[in-house]
Amino acid sequence: MPKVEHQDATVLTDDEVRTLDAHWRAANYLAAGQIYLMANPLLREPLRPEHIKPRLLGHWGTSPGLNLVYTHLNRVIKARGTDALAIWGPGHGGPSVLANSWLEGTYSETYPDVSRDGEGMERLFRQFSFPGGVPSHVAPETPGSIHEGGELGYSLSHAYGAAFDNPDLVVACVIGDGEAETGPLAASWHSNKFLDPVRDGAVLPILHLNGYKIANPTVLARLPEHELDELLRGYGHAPIHVTGDDPLTVHRAMAHALDEALDRIALLQNSAREDGVTERPRWPVIVLRTPKGWTGPAEVDGVPVEGTWRAHQVPLAGVRENPEHLRQLETWLRSYHPERLFDADGRPVADVLACVPEGDHRLGATPHANGGVLLRELPVPSLDRFAVPVDKPGTTLHEPTRILGDLLQEIMKDTSHRRDFRLVGPDETASNRLQAVFDASGKAWQGIVLPVDEHLDRHGRVLEILSEHTCQGWLEGYLLTGRHGLFSSYEAFVHIVDSMVNQHIKWLKTSRELPWRAPIASLNYLLTSHVWRQDHNGFSHQDPGFVDHVLNKSPEVVRVYLPPDANTLLSVADHALRSKDYVNVIVAGKQPCFDWLSMDAARAHCARGAGIWDWAGTENGGEPDVVLACAGDVPTQEVLAAAQLLRRNLPDLAVRVVNVVDMARLMPREEHPHGMSDFEYDGLFTKDKPVIFAYHGYPWLIHRLAYRRTGHKNLHVRGYKESGTTTTPFDMVVRNDLDRYRLVMDVIDRVPGLAVRAASVRQQMADARSRHQAWIREHGTDLPEVADWGWNA
Amino acid sequence: MPKVEHQDATVLTDDEVRTLDAHWRAANYLAAGQIYLMANPLLREPLRPEHIKPRLLGHWGTSPGLNLVYTHLNRVIKARGTDALAIWGPGHGGPSVLANSWLEGTYSETYPDVSRDGEGMERLFRQFSFPGGVPSHVAPETPGSIHEGGELGYSLSHAYGAAFDNPDLVVACVIGDGEAETGPLAASWHSNKFLDPVRDGAVLPILHLNGYKIANPTVLARLPEHELDELLRGYGHAPIHVTGDDPLTVHRAMAHALDEALDRIALLQNSAREDGVTERPRWPVIVLRTPKGWTGPAEVDGVPVEGTWRAHQVPLAGVRENPEHLRQLETWLRSYHPERLFDADGRPVADVLACVPEGDHRLGATPHANGGVLLRELPVPSLDRFAVPVDKPGTTLHEPTRILGDLLQEIMKDTSHRRDFRLVGPDETASNRLQAVFDASGKAWQGIVLPVDEHLDRHGRVLEILSEHTCQGWLEGYLLTGRHGLFSSYEAFVHIVDSMVNQHIKWLKTSRELPWRAPIASLNYLLTSHVWRQDHNGFSHQDPGFVDHVLNKSPEVVRVYLPPDANTLLSVADHALRSKDYVNVIVAGKQPCFDWLSMDAARAHCARGAGIWDWAGTENGGEPDVVLACAGDVPTQEVLAAAQLLRRNLPDLAVRVVNVVDMARLMPREEHPHGMSDFEYDGLFTKDKPVIFAYHGYPWLIHRLAYRRTGHKNLHVRGYKESGTTTTPFDMVVRNDLDRYRLVMDVIDRVPGLAVRAASVRQQMADARSRHQAWIREHGTDLPEVADWGWNA
Asked: Where is each Xylulose 5-phosphate/Fructose 6-phosphate phosphoketolase C-terminal domain found (chains A, B) (predicted)?
């Protein structure tokens, strides 16, 4: 942001007020027009029922306030040359943002058929809340947007995500007083403790108190002002109030407030950047109090509407049938004097556009809202430097996430000047054994630092706050503005962001269909501290269902990987970090885990996504008698141990071992881009042999993915079935029937003819299982792991 | 709570300080002992490696602070006869709460083998973080608990839920400074705007700032005190500070603070109850600052531990191998002087127990924490009074949720004196068309009221805040303390509480296995504004996956119902509201929907959970040619319309119509208590005929439920597949291939021999589909619905 000296209190000239008001009225007119009109958009003739849409749908209530903010952001951007991005938090601000981007021309540049003239205006109106048209909330289709309306709570964390490592950017974030009641929003106020005034941009929250939600007053609007101020100061902000319902007065106050806020931001940034001030800044927040549905009908059918919750959606509902409503609508629309706002062709007149900035400074045109255009490839180093050497499978142990930490450290180093890579997580980076990154970047922290603290860093790019919502929102905002990142979380608790990831996947799905949106970096999850390790936690920490949740969503976006060891984790992470427009979910353990594959083998295996591990099986050409399949680190270990037990005890049984890394490979080719053909599937799993599949999560997921396959009726899946508690790793697998002994018994039970022939082996397995459990009860630990696997040469 | 006059500032006698400190030291000793010892619990002999657990697991850091709170709550409960419940927010407070309930005797009363003597102490120690033992967080197994540790964020909303309609109860809620960073916790501070000082109890938040999370300082602990005070006052509280690391000083300060807080609570309640003061009270909050791992090792291996994040789990990690660590542990444990705290038999001495209250006043014994013992049956009136008359299926329309609203109104009325039923929702009660309840109870609101407001009520039992997390937390707390309720939500956004419902289901699953826990009322969801109606919303509002999420969890707890019309909704709701220990998910539309079943037929159908609608099919004895199955209101309508089209166009085809209300019926009997036998399933769906199943949500859910059935290979499911946008209801079903025309085409494609014979009918269907879509594009509305269904007589 250009350096700006502190200005005197803003005093708008009458002419400035007049043109700002013209812009605002034009936006209000267009917002109302979208809700009501499908013809006669400029009111060139008297309003008649046939001009009105057959279904009146949309949201007027929040629009006038958002229009005011947009108008005034235009003014200060133009006056100061500010590099700005706006986030529109109120859920149903669609009519307003669409109106403003049409006025500034970005809508027509993006969608040329909706031209900036009378004809385009009619299209703008008609498409709104119309079948196949645009929704009543901001969406990926909206120019200048990185934040979907609808589900509330994420505006402020998105704003901070956008501001990180964008030192010249001001992110204005309108927070509705409805949204302000949500948990994610409430938590994200404290994001200012993580915003670096030197290397990050600024976030200017604009808390818009129009007083009502759908049907209720809002909590914050009904706080006495001093109490609200205490709250905002407690959040670390300095409040600036703009209150009123007289447009001209509010214009003056809003202009003054925005100048004050931007001056203060510049001052705080200069202090930190030029004068080395390290005290956490007290950033400004604007509190804007204007009536809900401002300038709309004051009363309808004898009850107050403007300034009440009744203005939330469509203030006049019966316009086509009720002449009085039609008359009221016409009066309302004409109160903006469209004839003074638009010329003979329906184009906005010069006064209306006086405040609008030029080119990419327009809020609908900022490249930050189409982050893909700013995206640079992430420098992922060669994996060979981080790979663990594997001469023979299962002879060494590594903690996979710790190895990944080394890779992440290198990426963190290599991006230290570019500053376009961040690691986020809820206080778990070290717990998840990724702490090597701290040697390349500390943890962002603007709070007080004590001598005992470690790795806290004003300029750090590791973000840790105990709020999965805030982590997710930050990362989304960061990615959507063209940067890269990874979210590491305990597996069970990532469900906290189920609904957020839903919305992000929807965003990506829709964006991929918009040619003007450039691809952005994928949202990458590393889920660790997973269900199979409950040493001191327990049932509350067990949930492998995030994979199920994600796999319900658009297949073109979602990818799920379960690397079985350190090198496969490296390979999968490499792919995920380089990819675009996906949501990649990687599930990997942090506990010591056998190394199975060399780096080359891991690369080849991960590229296929699923394959036969012939060194672990006992096939001799021909079809196997049974397939032991596995996905996930713990199931893989149990399957390999089961294969060893079978080799030792039933040496003539032909066992195939198949490992699956990329879960979508199991799906039909028509249902997921990674899906295998039936030919390929049958080649791996056979058409008619028993398949014992040991899976990391809920077993029915495998059935849901593979139910169309020929061999599905022979598929027997073991997985997590809501059993377990605080216990040892081996006891966890026993309690869920995923252990090696159980798997061998499954083989014996399912291979035709084996039940009788191998009855004594089966009994040995049952005995070994019992012995192991008795040992655990007695000693509190597992028996030591086997060392001699007896692989094929 | 007994009326208490305001007291002078508390001054403890030296003797009181001494006995309080003895209790606290005993609790600290027991907390540390649980983490380390499996023998020699009373340190009667020198500590040797073999006394130490082989795996050191657990959490010391938060324990001393929680022990302090427990000790002092004991004191005030005993002194005042307060009826109190405690919620322990810090995730890993297990060692502390277990220690305290063992000291007060409730642990041994609940688990007699863990007796209050040396032998029991050894068992208490050994079971902790031991295979098959108890986790390091509070759990259902913990006496006095209604709040699981582990996943953080819900302590305060649980506390408010417990306090609603319990006017004599004080709920003390310890909030860790880690938890305080989460979104759900941050939102729930504003619960005080909904707490009625007259008819509800009090919540006393105790914000425990020990400064660190797992590996980071906490945000709130590093705020300057004046900023934290602003925040807490902004939340509507009056802060009382207790800070220190000198035990005796802190005891005096804590006693004073608790007396001050309880005096203030009594004063505020008296003002509201006796003097009619209606101003929202400024409730007290205690801010307790004590070191993390207080009284543990100050330094280990040369680095500071007490008062740092390093005290989070096990401060001395190498005790069995490292003699210095062993020595340090012994010094630490002996610093509490166990020989003065426990008698020769290992029983706590009188001084230790001096502060402990009697009987049910002990925190581990309060019946509020075992709500089932307080639960009264909910008075659900006869459904016949609310049923819609149905002479002939599909001839009248009703909004199902509006009919349910009438029933809820009656229940609300009938519980107006008992006050044990609440409706919660995120500002959607009216939007979800349940507004009839407002005639029986308004919406709880303690804020400022304006003349324009409607249905706000200081004593209301409808709770609306725009935070699904807070709604869920309130309801959970309310149910866990023995009351009833219903949560209504938009279907798509209920994913916001995915992780919370996970934890509640886990709680119920575990509780059901504990004979001492009495069953509580089920947690009932009404999901409406569902995926098939996107008139002005769009893709962001579409998600039917909560059903999938819930059906992953323990089958003994979860129930999912998709009633197809108003009367079936009544029947299902009646069952859900009367049931216990379940999570019931009901998905039902709020838009006008055809009435299919009379009340009697609906009751019979819902009792079966799935059944043949012979009036809609064209069977004539014998097996049908095809089965049209449906689950959900919109799919049912489309299937019935498809059946009508088939009857008209292919009159000799034998079509069976099956409707499924209770989704678990589709599961095998062995996997869910509601599961059908194969015999029953085959009787409904046949073994070998094509089944076209129109389902409300993701189609693969049906496969996942039915994959073991003989006829599974003939099952073809239509459902939601992530298509759709802002559009008409019919366009939504077309875009997802769930429409009547598509279903008829599916029948033609799948019934052997029909493809050729019915080619022209197939073409007619495709044409009708196109015509309908063209109409929608042109007019923005659907064609009018058919009226003549042509049912069987």
From this structure: 590-791
Q: What is the pLDDT of residues B279-298, one digit of tens each?
A: 999 999 999 999 999 999 99
Q: Which of B216, B228, B429 sits opposite A443 (nearest CB)?
A: B216
**Closest approach of chain B CAs to the CA of A254, in angstroms?**
24
Chain B residues touching residue A549 (CB < 8 angstroms): 498, 545, 548-549
Task: Return the pLDDT at A780.
Answer: 85
Q: Which two tokens stand for residue A4?
A: 């700006």
- What CATH architecture is A384-594? 3-Layer(aba) Sandwich (3.40)
A672-704 pLDDT per residue, tens: 999 999 999 999 999 999 999 999 999 999 999
Yes or no, beta carbons of B131 and A722 under 8 Å apart: no
pLDDT in tens, A267-308: 999 999 999 999 999 999 999 999 999 999 999 999 999 999
> What topology does CATH give the domain B383-594?
Rossmann fold (3.40.50)
Sign (positive or negative) of CA dihedral A74, A80, A85, A89: negative
Contact A230 B231 (CB under 8 A): yes
How much is the ipTM here?
0.96
pLDDT single digits (tens) A441-491: 999 999 999 999 999 999 999 999 999 999 999 999 999 999 999 999 999
Q: Do A219 and B193 touch (CB under 8 A)?
A: yes
* A contact test, residue of B536, B541, B704, B716 with most A CBs within 10 A: B536
Write out the two tokens for B19: 């006995």
Chain B residues lying within 8 Å of A299, measured CB to CB: none
Which of A496, A488, A697 shows the shortest CA–CA distance to A585? A488
Please tell me if the domain spanning B383-594 has the same topology as the one spanning B617-779: yes
- CATH classification code of B617-779: 3.40.50.920
Residue B51 has pLDDT above 60, yes or no: yes
- pLDDT, mean of residues A713-731: 91
What are the structural domain ranges in chain B?
14-362, 383-594, 617-779
pLDDT of B9 strictly over 70: no
The answer to whether B363 touches B85, Cβ cutoff 8 Å, is yes
CATH class assigned to B14-362: alpha beta
Tell me the CA distances in angstroms from A282 to A443, A446, A447, B62, B452, one per residue in order.
Answer: 21, 11, 12, 31, 37
Instruction: Closest CB to B135: pick one of A134, A229, A538.
Output: A538
Domain A15-357: assigned CATH number: 3.40.50.970
In CATH terms, is domain A610-779 a member of 3.40.50.920?
yes
Instruction: Tell me which of A52, A160, A313, A427 to substitute to probe the interface with B (most B C-beta atoms closer than 10 Å).
Output: A427
Q: Which is it for the CA torsion A167, A486, B540, B188, positive or negative? A: negative
Q: Measured between alpha carbons, how far is residue A392 from residues A266, A630, A632, A665, A785 in Å?
A: 60, 19, 20, 27, 16
